[in-house]
Design a protein that fits this description.
By secondary structure, the protein is of the alpha/beta class. Helices cover about 30% and strands about 15% of the residues. The protein has two domains: about 5-95 and about 290-305, NAD(P)-binding Rossmann-like Domain (Rossmann fold), CATH 3.40.50; about 100-285, NAD(P)-binding Rossmann-like Domain (Rossmann fold, 3-Layer(aba) Sandwich). The chain contains ten helices and twelve strands. Helix 1 packs parallel to helix 10 and helix 4 (about 100-115) crosses helix 6 (about 150-160). The longest helix is centred in the middle third of the chain and has 16 residues, at about 100-115. The two termini are about 35 Å apart. The relative contact order is 0.14.
Length: about 325
């Protein structure tokens, strides 16, 4: 009997891997850490590939029949799959797994810049006790959540519980739903939404439809003193316009888990912008490894049964 091989290029840990081996006894599982090099001859034998958006593993997996990427964002990744294996190869992603971890990171970045945590940490390093400027509270403010998927919805629920008015933006029109007081869509909707918001939280995926969405003109429409948080993709917010807004004070503060370019080069001027907190694209690392394994298993079963993948990637939208 020919061995059926699943290569996992992501360090799930012992318990999730034991769960997968029990769930799919007809498969052999080989597990590698997130940045570990998987030998090409191993990838060539794989029927199934699970990894964390590592495009270098796609071409060597010449006989792969199903791919699951742990990453929620697949812009660039899905293009490489299409190039190497065509557009009919089933591909699912980790969307839906990150709502708690990344949604909470949105709030952490917002609260850190609002409440002076960044300058306070710098003062600790110098063993100093100067006053730290505060930018206010969430209560009674208006938050615009760009991207009303699981991550944005979770961040919105937290802000609603803290007493904020929460407005949503999505690419396709729909009726308002919890936790949003209203939903805006399209360019006209974005133009109407941005001037209302004290906080703009970018929770959209990277795609051709979101690239440079917040350009200089859109940032100019925001309130003076707006606070901006981006955990979607760096390409959604124009970096030059963001830097200008931070320097002239139009943007009071920003928290970024993603940048453009990424990783941010050591000599990039964004590092020196005032009132800015950057985390190195870590917001999703707190997501449950078992939850990753269970979601992969749900899609894996669908592949084996010839059913539609519940987490199938939309190749046009690239998420």
């Amino acid at each position: 009997m020919t061995e059926r091989l699943c290569v996992v290029g992501y360090d799930l840990g012992e318990e999730p891997m034991a769960f997968l081996r029990k769930e799919f006894p007809e498969f052999s599982f080989l597990s590698y850490k997130r940045f570990e090099k998987v030998p090409d001859d191993i990838l060539e034998k794989a029927e199934v590939l699970m990894n964390y958006g590592d495009k270098s593993q796609i071409a060597p997996a010449k006989n792969v029949k199903f791919i699951h990427t742990v990453s929620a964002g697949v812009d660039g990744y899905i293009d490489e799959v299409n190039r190497c294996h065509g557009e009919k190869l089933p591909v699912s992603n980790g969307a839906g797994v990150y709502f708690d971890a990344v949604g909470e990171h949105v709030i952490a970045l917002l609260m850190a810049v609002l409440h002076g945590i960044v300058p306070s940490v710098k003062n600790m390093e110098k063993k100093q006790w100067p006053g730290v400027p505060m930018l206010g509270n969430v209560y009674g403010k208006t938050a615009a959540v760009l991207g009303t998927g699981d991550i944005g919805n979770n961040a919105g629920r937290i802000l609603k519980a803290m007493g904020a008015k929460v407005l949503g933006y999505k690419l396709h029109p729909c009726e308002a739903f919890e936790p949003y007081d209203a939903i805006y869509t399209g360019e006209n909707g974005l133009n109407e939404l941005l001037p209302q918001a004290d906080f703009v939280l970018v929770c959209l995926p990277g795609s051709p439809f979101t690239k440079d969405l917040l350009n200089a003109k859109k940032i100019a429409r925001m309130k003076d003193g707006v606070v901006l948080v981006n955990i979607g993709r760096g390409s959604i917010v124009n970096t030059e316009a963001l830097m200008e807004g931070l320097k002239n004070g139009h943007i009071a503060a920003a928290g970024l888990d993603v940048t453009d370019p990424e990783p941010l080069p050591e000599n990039h001027p964004l590092w020196d912008c005032p009132n800015l907190l950057i985390t190195p694209h870590i917001s999703g690392l707190g997501a449950s490894k078992m939850k990753h394994a269970q979601w992969f298993a749900e899609n894996f079963h669908a592949y084996l049964e010839g059913k539609e993948l519940p987490g199938a990637v939309n190749r046009e939208m690239k998420y």
